[in-house]
Each structure stands twice: as structure tokens, then as C-alpha cells.
Amino acid sequence: MKKLHNVKNIWQQSQKITQEFSQQYILLNREDKQLTLKEKTVLLLCKQAEARVEHLTSLQPEEKEGMIAVIETEKIKAKLHFTPEKIIVKDDYIKGKLKLLNSPQLESNSIVYRYLIAGWQTFLGNKIPHQVLPKDIKVEQNKIYYSLPKDKIELLKPFWAVFQDDSALLTTLREKELTITSSVAFNRDNFKVQDLL
Fold first, then answer.
1. Distances from the Cα of 175 to the Cαs of 60, 65, 73, 147, in angstroms?
2. Strand 177-182 to strand 34-37: parallel, antiparallel, or no bridges (unpaired)?
3. Nearest CA among 48, 69, 49, 52 for reference residue 60
4. Pairing with 117, which of 10, 36, 85, 109 sits 20 to 30 Å away (CA)?
5. What is the mean pLDDT of residues 135-155?
6. DSSP classification of residue 75
7. Domain of life here (predicted)?
């Protein structure tokens, strides 16, 4: 009888740990087909992105909505305030849409680049010419459309096992929490938290 009581205590403790973890890091809601990444998880993913993405010096969730990314090259520093809106999961790639919440801010210590930035802002109205973008990225007004191979996005690998191919994922990032709503049911049993680390 004592062993049964010990098993019951262990089970209750594991339930408590799981509940505490989900409250602090991730919430899975199968009925609403939602996955919510809490602030701690979003910050962890941001830090991993900073370490893995070339020229990305800072990525932080903004207090109210979206994220702020700082990208630096030799001569130019760009600050982007955006929010993810939609992701479509395909067999070996993803397509997505980001919304720019503010116009990109560009800075440079080089006087030549400052003149180029001023010209770009004045004559092009902050619009990015399509010919300077990679072939899988398109900008239309305040929307950025992209298509990327799954194997190039190792950071999101834990999520590919959760969402089925051809899933449409609507995303909102508010108050430092990312909520992903899937068009189809997802398999939460395939989600492995340790893959995020």
C-alpha cells in the first residue's frame, strides 16, 4: 500500500511540475488548436536566433506587440519593428508573412551611407526595391512575404513535428507571448521541449 501511495505522490508531483512549466513556458490547447509560447520561451528563441543568424545583433519582443530586430553590417544598422502574421508549413519549406509595424530605421556612421539612406527615404519613401532582395523574399507596402527551406530554420525544428504539412498557422505576438493558431489539429505528443535548448 505504501508503494501505491508513493507512486501517487510521484504522479501528483509530475503533474504539478508539468503545470508550472506550461504556465511559465508553453501552453498547448488542443481544442482551440493553439500553441502559446510564453515570454520566457520567446526570449529563449530570440537569444538562439541572435546566436545563429548572421548580422542579427538583437531580437527582442516589444512590450505591446511584435518584435524589434537590429541588423548590423559593416556600414549600416537597421532596426525593424515587425510581427509575424501567418506561416504555411509545407513538406520541405515554409511560407510566411510578417507585418512591419513601423518603417525600418537605418543608421550609419559613414557620411556616404547617411546620404544614401536619406536619398532612399526621400525618393523611394522607405520602399525596398525588389531587385535587392533575395529571391524568396518579397515586400509589398508593410508586408514581408518569405519562403524558406525547413532545413535552414533549425531554430524552429521542434515545431515541425507538431504541425502537419499544409497547416496554415496564424500567429500573434502580443505582450511578449506568441500565440500560434493552426488550421488543423496538431500532434502535441511529438513536441519535445528539450529540442528547444
1. 12, 6, 29, 27
2. antiparallel
3. 69
4. 85
5. 84
6. S
7. Bacteria
pLDDT in tens, 28-42: 888 888 889 999 989
Stated pTM of the model: 0.77
Name the CA dihedral angle for 179, 181, 186, 189, rounded to a multiple of 10 degrees. 10
Q: Would you give the distance in Å from CA 129 to the centre of its chain?
A: 25
Rounded CA separation 53/117 (Å): 24
Specify whether the CB–CB gap between 169 and 184 falls below 8 A.
Answer: no
Please enumerate in sequence order all residues whose Cβ is within 8 A of that of 164, keeping only pairs 6 or more positions apart, or say none: 89, 184, 186, 187
End-to-end, the C-alpha distance of the chain in Å comes to 39
With beta carbons less than 8 A apart as the criterion, state whether 96 and 87 touch: yes
In the predicted model, is pLDDT for residue 90 greater than 80? yes
Question: Residue type at 45?
Answer: L
Q: Cα separation of 18 and 66, whole Å? A: 28
Residues 6+ apart with CB under 8 A from 74: none
C-beta of residue 76 within 8 angstroms of C-beta of residue 50: no
